[in-house]
Description:
The chain has about 750 residues and is of the alpha+beta class. It is built from 24 helices and 28 strands. The strands form 7 sheets. A 5-stranded antiparallel beta sheet has the order 6-7-3-10-11. The protein has a 5-stranded mixed beta sheet with strand order 24-26-25-27-28, with helices on both faces. Strands 1-2-8-5 form a 4-stranded antiparallel beta sheet.
Amino acid sequence: MFRHLLAALLAFGALCASAKAQEQDGLLPVEQAYVLNAEIAPSGDRVNLHWQIAKDYFLYRGRTKVKTDQPGLNLGTLDLPPGKPKQDEFFGAVEIYHDALSGSVPFTLDDATAQTVNLTVTVQGCHETDPQICYPPHPVKLSLPRPSIAQGAALSPLASKLMAANSPSSLLEAADADVTLPPEQAFVFEAIAMSPTEILARWTMPKGYYLYRDRSSVAVSDGRDVVAGKATWPQGVDHVDEHFGSVVVYYDQVELPVAIQRGDGKAQTIQLTGEFQGCKENGICYPVMQRTVSIDLETASAEQLAAAAKSFVPASQTTAADAVKPLADNALRSQAPHTASISVPLALLFALLGGLILNLMPCVLPVLSFKVMGLAQSGESLAKARSHALWYTLGVLVSFAALGLLVIALRAAGQALGWGFQLQQPGFVAVLVYVLIAVGLSLSGVFSIGAGLAGSGQQLTQKSGPAGDFFTGVLACVVASPCTAPFMGPALALAFASSSVTALFIFLALGLGLALPFLLIGYIPALASRLPKPGAWMETFKQVLAFPMYLTAVWLVWVLGKQRGVDAIGWVLAGAVLLALGLWWWERRRFKEGFVSRALAVLVILASLAPVWVVSRMAPMATLAHDESALAYSKPRLAELREAGRTVFVNMTADWCVTCKANEKAVLGTAHFNDLLQQSNAVYMKGDWTNVDPEITAFLQEHGAVGVPLYVVFHGGEEGEVLPTVLTSDIVEAALAK
Length: 738
């Protein structure tokens, strides 16, 4: 009884210590502290076991056990080397192991045709430096494939590769949250033949790393008439990802059995390629990775080939890897057939023209009217007009370059994105609301931007210096991002798919096009002379310009409500009131003594930023629920409709996309469009990209689009026809009539 009581107390103590260990920084999970690798010896009658033991950890010899519940499997005595003697406070005189341990256990099988040997290996060990804890007994279930004795060749063990890839040093590095592992250590990929007609792929990740299910796949890249079938993924973990939305991921390790179809049963070596993507928690997302491993296939009998053929399910035509292929494969098919052979110089010209046309878009006009104010202030002075134009152009170019570099960096990290992607982030939208409100308040005279110490004694021409012009250029770039203009689609498609240098030049060409009208006014006196002369009218005009800024802020608040609901609207409006209060109070105390009073104004302004953090953490809202005339986009539903021979009009839109809303108001929301759908027996399907949606992003990439709007018409199983960005009733009617 005393021995049983002591054992129970020890087990309880070990469990408590283990729980405490999970709260201690620097302690490894038990599977990383003691990395087990196992294989069946070539003789086929013994299982070899090897443990890699991390630094400052040890294993008990007497607590290492092997058992089985497999019928017909008989285990011999576990053979372990002598350990280091130790006087243990729990178990008395014991033997322990540091660094590494190798052992073996003999076995016999009553069923000579058994394909696997199933064991449960249990170990127990401790961490011997602070915090000194002992893990509870840790069982590991093994299912080891038997080597082919008839052929006299042992299968290359899957576990032996893990020893090389997951050394104790790399695992210890993974335990450090500040260390980002290289891809080959963060995601170890390997595979083995489980039978002549089935292979097993496996990914192993250190603690803190995860693998995306729907962005990973395997395929036979080199093999004589060998084809991989549909993979059967195990159940993963539901994860709300900041990059791809709601996804399924795997931690630690995932094994993927894959059936194969063979043209003949002859033994051969094939190459299996895994394409996959994953992330580090609270860290970077790796780009799409590819690894190729060799697999030795045994000779397959006619019976095995026949049995495998009956149950073989071909892989889907569209794999998970297809969804993350670079845009280069199809980016140039996006806007119209004539863009199929677009060159880099032509893309730069299209970008320049697209940026020029952006000046006419409704999302840009409020800022441009603000810029006209500055040019009018320059009067007859050519030098001032040039200064305004140059600083404004510099602000536009710097902003587009920053946006291009951000796109390049995110693309290198493997993230799927498109034009206007920043407006999918509610925190960014909230900040933009504040910026527009602040500009409007300045135009209304609540506070001054750039006013000197003389304050009211300055002329209007001195209130807009280089900083103001530069900031106006930045603001023009920001508000232009949700708009798309003709010619922009092909250029941006190439930018999102080409090299970093080409992409950056395309973004700069877009910025130059946006700034070109004001650059021409600054450097062509004949144009500058047509500007109105400065006068008292400018103060009234300046105050009138505040209202387009307020209306633009209202539009963004509406977008935010679509993304995060009415609570988000309330938070941001409350923050806007605090911002207005802080700016008003700062302006009142600007030229008066009293540090405390000004400090309070600053605190109020800083407090107004709190809603940005609150809104950015809110859950996304369901969208498009109110539109009863359209089906919500679903890839399986679209496939079903196409297989049934139906015509489907797909509209990819977003609430922050001004061009989308204009098309829906003028064309897609009319009774004429509904009549066209009925006449052609077509189905109207809408996808909402207001929030991040990886399924819609994949659809955009598949059709070479860099953002919304995207309109595609499918006629049954035929390839979809991509319509222009700006729609007319005639264009839609012609597409549906086909």
